[in-house]
Amino acid sequence: MKQSLTLIPTMREVPSDIEVKSYKMLLRAGFLKPSTYGVYSYLPLAKRLLTKIEKIVREEIEAVGAIEISLSSLQSHDIWEQSERIHHFKDELLTLTDRHKRKLLLATSHEEIVTMLVRDEIKSYKKLPLILYQIQMKYRDEKKSRKGLIRSREFYLNDTYSFHANEISLSDTYDRIVQAFTNILNRLRLNYLVVEADSGVKGEIQAQEFIIPSEYGDTVIVKSNQSNYMANVEVANIMPNNKEKTTLLKLLEKVATPEVTTIRDLCQYFNISPESCMKTLVYLIDDEFVVVLVRGDHQVNEYKLKKVLNATSMRLANEDEINDLLGCSPSSIGPIKLPINIKVFADYAIQSLTNSVTGANEEGYHYINVNPERDFAINTYADLRYIQEGEISPDGEGITQFIYGHEIGHVIKLGTFFSEKFNANFVDEHDVSNPILMGSYQLGISRLLAILAEKCQDDNGFVWPTYLSPYDIHLIPINRDDEVQWNLSNELYNILSSYHFDVLFDDRHESPGVKFTDADLIGLPVRVMIGKKATEGIVEVKIRSTGETFEWAKEELVDRLNEFFRTNSYN
Amino acid sequence: MKQSLTLIPTMREVPSDIEVKSYKMLLRAGFLKPSTYGVYSYLPLAKRLLTKIEKIVREEIEAVGAIEISLSSLQSHDIWEQSERIHHFKDELLTLTDRHKRKLLLATSHEEIVTMLVRDEIKSYKKLPLILYQIQMKYRDEKKSRKGLIRSREFYLNDTYSFHANEISLSDTYDRIVQAFTNILNRLRLNYLVVEADSGVKGEIQAQEFIIPSEYGDTVIVKSNQSNYMANVEVANIMPNNKEKTTLLKLLEKVATPEVTTIRDLCQYFNISPESCMKTLVYLIDDEFVVVLVRGDHQVNEYKLKKVLNATSMRLANEDEINDLLGCSPSSIGPIKLPINIKVFADYAIQSLTNSVTGANEEGYHYINVNPERDFAINTYADLRYIQEGEISPDGEGITQFIYGHEIGHVIKLGTFFSEKFNANFVDEHDVSNPILMGSYQLGISRLLAILAEKCQDDNGFVWPTYLSPYDIHLIPINRDDEVQWNLSNELYNILSSYHFDVLFDDRHESPGVKFTDADLIGLPVRVMIGKKATEGIVEVKIRSTGETFEWAKEELVDRLNEFFRTNSYN
User: Fold this and answer.
1) Are A262 and A230 members of one domain?
2) pTM for the model
3) A141 CB near a chain B CB, below 8 Å?
4) Considering chain B, what is the average pLDDT of its residues?
5) Cis peptide, bond prior to residue B129, ω within 30 of zero
6) A-B C-beta contacts closer than 8 Å
7) Which of A72, A141, A149 has its CA nearest to residue A112?
8) Which EC number applies (chains A, B) (predicted)?
9) pLDDT confidence bin for A175, thresholds 50/70/90
C-alpha cells in the first residue's frame, strides 16, 4: 500500500485531557478518530488490526463447533421486558421509537432473540447441542465512557450462545469455549486471569471473567497471597465473623448531633472509629423499601444484595423518598423504630457490633450504645459488603490482595433463565419436555484492540508483533527526490509485494525526520530504509521491537526478511 | 459441516401473507428469520452467502484503490442538521436520545462524518485523491418495509467516499467505481441497467443508479423504444410543449359544483377529459406556501419540484393549512384570485391549456374557461411532472416505455455540497484554498443477497451457482442406519473436505424424502447421495441446476467433482 493513498493521520500532540494510555497512542498514531461522545471511527490501520484479531477469534471459536450468524441489533423493547433484562441494564440501553411509535432498542447482547430463534426451530434433543456465534457492533450507553475503546458506547463484540439438553453437555461446551478464549489470548501473547464473576442474570450456574491485569484497568480482582483463590471483587464472598460478644452492653441513649452528615463527622463528634458505627441505607427493591446495614467502614455490595434478595430491580432511595418514609434526611436515619413492614438486611459484620452508633430517624439526632437484636430486629443477616484488601481470603488461606485489570471475556452458564422466560423447550429421549440449558460467552473485540494497543507500545509509538501488525514492512526512501533511491524503492516495493509481504510504502514528500517519527508511531515490525547506499544496492533495515539495525544487500533482502518473519511469527 | 451441528430451519409452508419472491424462499430454505418489523436475522447459510458477496465487493472496490475503514453508526444529530440532510430523510432516520439528553441518530450513510474526518486530516492537494470505503450495517426507518431484505430497516451497505482536488480526478474515480460495480454485477451474473438518477443532494454534478430489472422491483425506469435513453422516472426530463394555442378563448365563468371532490368527479360533471383540467396543489416549501399546477392527468414530481425551487424542506400543505390560506377545502382550490405573495409554479403542459377547469377557492365552486396568463399570473413554468409511458422520449428519439427493477447501486458526483457545509478545504498547487470535491458510491449488500435469492431459484428451492453457494457439496447418506452407507458417507466427508471442498454432510436421522426436499430447498450445486450401491463403492450425483444425475465410483468422485467445479466456477 502506498502511504499517499491511505489515511494515517499521525499527531505530534494529543489533547492534554486524554489520559488513557491505549487511546492516547491510537490517536497519536492515526488509528482512531472520535466521532461523538464515547463513540469512535476506525481508521485504515485500526480496521486492518481488527480484521487480524477477528480472524484469530473466528478460527478458535469455530474450532469449538460454533456457527456464525448475524442477529439484528435493532430489537423490540418488549422482549427485553419479557426477559426483565431491561431492569438490569436500565439507562445503559439505548432505546428509540420508530415512525410507528414502536419502542425499539439497540442490543448490548443477544440472549433474548437467540433464545426465541432456537425456541422456534429446535424441538428435540436430537438437534442439541447447538453453538451460534457472531462478531458484531453492540451498543451500551455507558455512564463513564471517556476511555477510548476500553469502554465505548458502540463496540465490537464476539458473542457466542450455546444450547444443551443436559448439564454435562453445557459444561463440556463451556469448558471448550474457556479453552478457545485461552487459546485466543495466548495467540495474542496476553497474560490473563480467569476469575469468578457476577453474571448479571438470576439463577445462573457459573460465571467467570477473563481479566487482563493492568494498572489502567477498572475491574478489581481479589486474590489470596497464599492460595489460588481469585475473584472479581463483586462476588468475593466474606465469611460470617462469629466473634463472641464480650463487651458489656450499655444503655441506649439519644444524643443531639448537630451538623453531623457523614460517617466521618460522626466519628469526629464521638471520637470513635468507623468500625464502631453502623451505616444505614434505604433501597427500593422491586417496588419495596428495605433497610440495609453495614459497618461504618464497609461498602454495600449491590451485586450481593441483589442476589440475596433475588431482586429484579434495585436502586438507592432518594432523599425525598427517605424523608417521606422516615421523616428525616439520609444523614440521620437508623434501624431503630422503623415503620412496621420495613425489612432490615444486615451484613454479617453487624452481628458483632456492640454499643454502636446510628441515626435516630430524627433530624440532628443519633443513638449511642446501639446493640443489634436488643434495640431493633434484623430480618436477615447476609454477606452484603465488598471485601477489602488485607482481610482473610474467602477460601480461608492467606490474606486478600487487590489486582486491577481489564475485563476482556465473560463466560456464563445461564442455565434455564432465558429458556424459561421464552418457553424454549425441547423433548428429551423419554418424550419429556424440558427447558433448554444455555450458555453465553462474550469476548470484547474492540476492547481487545485497546488492550493490545496498551501493551504493544513504547515511548515512540506502537511496537506491533508480526502476527498482529497492520502491515509487515515499512518501506521508506530517505530522499524521494533522489532518482536512484526512488527507483530502488519502487523496485523493492514490487519485489516484496510479489513475495506476499504486506508493505506500507512511504511515497510521501516528507523529510526523513517526519517519515521516521511516523514509522515509529505506526510501529510495523520491520523498517526498510533506502538511502545513500542505494547506489551500492544496500538498504538499511531496522527492527522496531529491538532497535537493531542491519545493512543488507537488496539481493539478500527477501531471504533475510523471510527468516525474520519465520522466527518471529506465531505458531 | 455436519448438518446436525448447524441451524438450517427449512419450512414446508411459509405464511400466506408473504408475497415477495426472494423473502419467501429465504424463509422456506432456512436462511433468514424475521426479528422485529422490517428487521431480520441472518442464519448460518445467509451469513455464508453474505461473506462470499462481501469478498467479491471488497476485491473490486479495493482494486480501485479504496481503503477500508469503519465509521461510527451512532452519530450526533447536530451534524445532520448542519448538512441539512435531516430534511431530506425526515421520518426515515432512526433518532434517539442518550442518558445525557444528547440527540443521536443511526446513520443511513456517512457523508457528514467522513467529510469531517477528511476536513481534519487532509489540508493539501498532495494528499488527494483519497478513496475510503466500508461494508457495514445501516439504518433507515422505511415507510414500507414488508419486503424482506429488499427494503429492510437494518441493512448491509457498501458505501465508498472519494475526495478530489479537481473534477478530472473526481470523474476518473467515478468512472472506475462504476466499472467496479459493473465487474461485481458481472461476476454475480446479474443483468443490470445504469440509469440517470436523483442524488438527494442539492447541486450534485451527476448521479446514476444501477438497476436490476425485475417484475418485482419498485423502481421505475423510463427508456426509449428507439434510442439508448434510460433514466429513473424521478429524473426523466420532459421538454416544453410549444404547441400554438389556436382555440378561441371563452369567457371565464364560475359554476357551482356540488359533490365534486376529485378530478374524476370534475370530468364527469362537465363531461370533459382529465387532460382539459388543471390540478392545483399547495406545498409548504422551506416555510413558504407555494401553488403548483399540473394537468389533470399528470402527477407532480416532487424531486423535480425540489430541484427547481432549490428547496431544502418540502411537503404538501395539510387540509387545515389550505383552509386557513384559501378559505376552502383542497377539492375547491385553484390559481385564480390567490392571496398576494403566493407564488405559482406551473408545469410546462399548463402552457398549452385553453378553456380549462379549476377550483374557484370557494367551497363547491369551480371556474370553467380558465386560461393561464389571461386569468391568473404564473411565476415560473418548469418541468414539474412525472413522465408517462407512451410519451416522446426525453432525448427526442422514440417513445417512452417503463421497466421495473431493484435499485442496487447509486453513484453520485457530490461536488462540494458537503465540503462547503463542513468547511473541508484543501490548498492547491498555487496555495489557494478550495473546497474538496467529493463522490459517494453505494452498493446494497443485503439487497444484493435478496436479488440473488430472487434470481437463483426454481419451484423446489434455491439453485446457487458454484461461486456463491454457501457450501459446494451436499453429502447425503440415504439410510443413516445402514452401516455400509454410513461408513462410506463418513469416509467421503473426510476425503472431500481434505480436498478443500466445502461439504454440508446431512448426518441427521431423517427420511430420504425429507433430506432430498431440504437439499432442493438449500440448493447447493452438487448433491452426492450414498445409497444401496455403497456396497459396490458407487454413489449417485445430482447437479442441482440441470437435474442431471450420474453414478460415479468413489475412486473417481474427487476428479469428477474437480472437473465440474473447474468448468462451472467463475473467472
Assistant:
1) no
2) 0.92
3) yes
4) 93
5) yes
6) 163
7) A72
8) 6.1.1.15
9) very high
